Amino acid sequence: MTALDAAALLARDALARLDRWEPVNGEQTALAAEYRAFLRGDGGTGARADAVRRDGGPQHLTASCFVLSPDLDRVLLCFHRKGQFWVQVGGHTEPGDTTLAGSAYREAREESGIAGLVPFDPDPDPSAGTRTGLRADAVPAAPVDVHRHDLAAAFGTCRTHWDVGFVAFADPEARTAVSDESEDVAWFPVDALPAGTPDDFPVRLATVLAEVRHRRRAGLPAR
């Protein structure tokens, strides 16, 4: 499979996940519609491969993973080397990625060093026929938020990231490791975030937590 073939699969997967997602937050619903339009392009019905590729243009989708403690009291953040801020793990898709959630989950493992991440709303094994059958490589199925943001010159040719967030759980006592893209990685209480997070990060995190709590209460399926 070529990188372009993988990007086409990834773009279709991203569009399908956003099509199925019904956010609890009205602003997220409106923004998700803009994401779907961005993926389809001008008047298109399919998904554009270049919308998910780092080299596809100055604007493209990225994938984040909010790593939370199971009780939702703590969040794992990394201190981003380029941005010089504390933020959730995640980033660009890679040529071998064929699902957006898989990309987010891969980034989470690489940037946190935690092997035992547990996906929220995991994709079931289609052959099992029920949500109790999970693949060994299961990843989160449905997004928890979308967040579009412009970037500083330090990020090079990237000008706007159309980020899609997913959630995974981990034990705050699990051993972490710092990746090449970060200077530090650490757990923080969700209501006592460190200085140096982006101005809108507390709002984004609150939106993510509200989405997770809503889906837990409602027992909503991922698909």
Instruction: Name the average pLDDT.
Output: 87
Strand content: 15-25%
Largest pleated sheet: 8 strands, mixed
**Global Rg:** 16 Å
- Supply the number of helical segments: 4
Between the first and last Cα atoms, what is the distance in angstroms? 27 Å
Q: What would the principal axes of the Cα set say about the shape?
A: globular
pLDDT < 50 stretches: 126-134
Backbone structural class: alpha+beta
How would you explain this protein's 3D organization?
Residues 126-134 have low confidence and may be disordered. Helix content is 29%, strand content 22%. The protein has 223 residues and is α+β, with helices and mostly antiparallel strands. The chain contains 4 helices and 8 strands, in the order ααββββαββββα.
Architecture blueprint of SSEs:
Blueprint: H1 3-20, H2 26-40, E1 59-68, E2 74-80, E3 86-87, E4 89-91, H3 100-112, E5 118-119, E6 145-150, E7 160-169, E8 182-189, H4 201-218
Parallel strand pairs: 1-7
Antiparallel strand pairs: 1-2, 1-4, 2-3, 2-8, 5-7, 6-7
Helix pairs in contact: 1-2
State the main characteristics.
eight-stranded mixed sheet; alpha+beta; 223 residues; 29% helix
